[in-house]
Every structure is written in structure tokens, then in C-alpha cells.
Amino acid sequence: MTATDDTGFDEAAHDDLTSRARIRNAALHQFAAKGFAGTPLRAIASEAGVAVGLIGHYFRSKEGAREGVEQWIVGLFAAALERADSQSDGRVADVAARDASVAAMLNDNPLVVDYLRRQVLELPTDGKLISRLASLSLESVEAMRNAGHASASRHPVEQVVTAMVRQLGRLFLQPLVDQIVDAFPEDEQPTKHPELRVEVKTAQ
Amino acid sequence: MTATDDTGFDEAAHDDLTSRARIRNAALHQFAAKGFAGTPLRAIASEAGVAVGLIGHYFRSKEGAREGVEQWIVGLFAAALERADSQSDGRVADVAARDASVAAMLNDNPLVVDYLRRQVLELPTDGKLISRLASLSLESVEAMRNAGHASASRHPVEQVVTAMVRQLGRLFLQPLVDQIVDAFPEDEQPTKHPELRVEVKTAQ
DNA sequence: TAAGCAGTTGAAAGATTGTTCAATGCATTG
DNA sequence: CAATGCATTGAACAATCTTTCAACTGCTTA
Question: At B26, is the pLDDT very low, low, confident or very high (cuts 50, 70, 90)?
Fold first, then answer.
């Protein structure tokens, strides 16, 4: 009766979460793991421990389920930014504080990172989620500008690109490093996987 | 009768290429654009200008078509490396020459980059293609070691990781930069998209 | 010409998919 | 208790997918 779970995904919260939340979590997990086109609704229903029909009840369609997932992710980012502000002395947090807050959120939600990675590399899709996060980041930058926490001379779009790519780029590329290292026999691997640094060379 | 082609993919070579090659090219294009699960065999057949059945004839199955594509890609990399050697004065080319040769090949085959981007960042798939390319790169590094063209003190696996990630990482992340920039209205965008630099910080 | 063969076709079969919907359980309210 | 409403189910449906295969083409060979 319980959903088969060879995925290692957290199932302990099954009892406490509403069906709607479990469906959203399962969709996030499946989309991140197998991609949107690669996940049948039945797989989501199975992981969430519900019937297929319930997905159509809460979210209108499969596309609606994707929208629900992305809305939730946008909320996570917004909450992380607000948290940084509320814990700051002044009315607006500085760059480092916001970076740390978002980094902590991403660290707590590795599936969000996996989902974003896919979303970014799948260029065909309109990339609406990235647009939304970019808007969020722009507001953040402008708030810091007004508070005198960010350089007012640099182009605001450049600041957004720098902030997002520096943060996400390292996370997106890490699997590549791991895959390459894992391609070698264990006794040839270095003890510690190399770390990445992604820099944005602002346009000359 | 001719396949509809709103994709902008090169169709001029249709006449000169064998059906098998056209199927392989179409599969590469479709997989890179829509993903493996997102591409029906009919789309490949349509772009290649053949009947669906012919795909099953040349490649055993859809999975077989993927294998055919990846085998071809591995061949491209191997050829690029050999080309660097043959154009070198000594018996073995140095790092820069090999980098340039592979970079030129990737520049001539942007669809290969798109395909690799998907393949690499998809953790679920076994990542066999990356393993093969890593092996290829290792041979390359060892050849250069023997020729005295590469540092013999650094860990060989680290050298492979550095070479691959520096080269591919920038290409993989560029769409992220473009997506973010395009998320803003045109009059706010900088004239030139920012460029990326990806560095591998070798393990401490 | 007849026979054979590789290349190619497209219809058919069988499996899987997203969506819909009548029916059930289970509370809460009148 | 009766009735109303929401949560949930799972079968049914239509569409689409992959795979298979008998048949057709054009060409080479005996």
C-alpha cells in the first residue's frame, strides 16, 4: 500500500503533510530526477501515496503541477530574502547577508537545486522561473542600492547576473566534477573532490 | 513530402548523407532540444525525412539511437585530439594545442554542446558518456606527461577534471547568463552579455 | 528474365500517457 | 438523523508512444 521508495526521498513527513503538499514534493522530486517529460503522473501519485485523480483535483493538469512547484520555489527565495532583512540591524540587509540566507535555503533544499539545474539547461522551455527569480534578485539589488549597500556605479543587470551565476553556477557544475571523478577507479581518485569557482567577467 | 523544418537545423546536407547519418543527426538535434524522453521517434523520422520503421532498422530501439549518437560524439572528441597531434611538430601535442582543437570541434558542432549539457547535468542517467570522455581525456593527459608537456607532480585525475570542467563549464553556464539577461526589458540590458570564467580550485 | 538482397515504407499491435468522471468515504452542519 | 460538501479513489477513455513486420522498391547477379 505504501509507495515503493527506492529513491531515498524523505518519506517520514508523509503523515504530517497534506496530500497537496506531498504531491508538490513528489512532483519536485520527480521533475528534478527524471525531467518534466520523463515523469508520468502515476509516478508522482505513487511517491505521494495518492491516486492519480487527486493530482488533477489540486492542480488542473500536469502543467499545473509544474506551476505549483515553481510557485513554491519562488516563495522559498522570497522567504530567504525577507529572513535576511529581518535578522539585519538596519532595515535592509547587505549583500553578504542575503547571499548567506539564500545559500542556507538552497543547502536545506537540495532538490530545489536539482530542479533549477534542469530548468536552466532546458533552454526550449520559456524559462519563466528564471525570469521570476531574476526579478526577485533585481528588487533585492535595488533595495540595497537605496540603502547604500551596493555599488551604484555598476549596471544593475550586471549585478543580478553576477549574484545569481556565482551562486548557482558552482552548484550546477558540481555534478559534472563528481561525475568525472567517479569515472575513475576508487584508488585513483583524490581524497577530496576538487572545488569550483565561477566568476563573471563583466562585459568590457 | 519534405520534412517540415521550422527548427533552423541544417537541411542542405540531406542529399549527400545516408539515411543512417540523417537519422543520427536528427536524433542528436531532437535530444539536445527536447530531451530524450521529450522526443518521439516520429519527430526524429520526420526531421530525417524517413519512415519511423527505418530508425528501428538501423538502431535497434530508441535507446539504441541514443547509443548511436553518443558513439558518434565520442568519435568527434577522439578525432579532435588526433588532429591536434598530427598538426604538432613533436609526436604529441601540448595542452594548449589540444584545448584549441577540441574547442574548434565544439564550435563547429554547437548541437554537441547542447547535447552534452543535458547529458552531463542529468544525474539519473548512468553518465556513461562522461565516463568515456573522461577516459579519453586521461589518455590525453598521460600522453602529454610522457612527452613532458604536462606537470608530473599534480594528480592526473585532477588534471582531467580541470581540463574538462574549464572547457565545458563555461559553455554549459552561458545559457544561464543569457536567460537572466533576457529576463529584463531590452533597454535595460547591457550591450554585451557578460562572459564567464570557470576555475577549478584543486583540493587542498 | 528470374532470383535475391539491401533499403525503405507505413499500417498494426500493444503499452503508456494525461485527463475525465461517477462513485465512495467522511466529516460537519442543519 | 438527514443533508451538504469536501477529500479521495480508481476505472475508463482518447491520444500518443515504441516496436514489430509484411510488403514494396530498385538494383545486382545468376
Answer: very high
- Let me know if residue A63 belongs to a domain: no
Tell if the CB–CB gap between A194 and B176 is shorter than 8 Å: no
Report pLDDT digits (tens) over B126-167: 556 677 788 877 877 787 788 777 777 788 888 888 878 887
B20 touches strand C (CB under 7 A): yes
Q: Which three cell numbers stand for residue B24?
A: 543520427
Q: A141 and A74 in one domain?
A: yes
Which of A58, A84, A101 is the last residue before a domain boundary?
Answer: A58
Helix (H) / strand (E) containing B141 = helix B128-146
Q: Label residue B9 by pLDDT band (50, 70, 90).
A: very low
B146 within a domain of the structure (yes/no): yes
Domain containing A54 equals: 1-58
Same domain, A8 and A53: yes
Distance CA B202, CA A192 (A): 9
Query: If residue A200 lies in a helix (H) or strand (E), which one and from where to where?
Result: strand A195-201
Contacts of B75 (CB under 8 A, 6+ apart): none
Residues B90 and B49 in one domain: no
B197·A192 Cβ contact <8 A: no
- Has residue B64 been placed in a domain? no
B56 touches strand D (CB under 7 A): yes
**A95 and A148 housed in the same domain:** yes
Q: Per DSSP, what are the bridge partners of residue B197?
A: A199
Tell whether A124 lies on the interface with B, counting CB pairs under 8 A: yes
Q: What does the alpha-carbon distance between residue A114 and residue A103 come to, in Å, rounded to a whole number?
A: 14
Instruction: Give the CA radius of gyration of chain A.
Output: 19
Residue A65 falls inside a structural domain: no
Burial profile B161-174: b = 16 or more Cβ within 10 angstroms, e = fewer = bbbbbebbbbbbbb
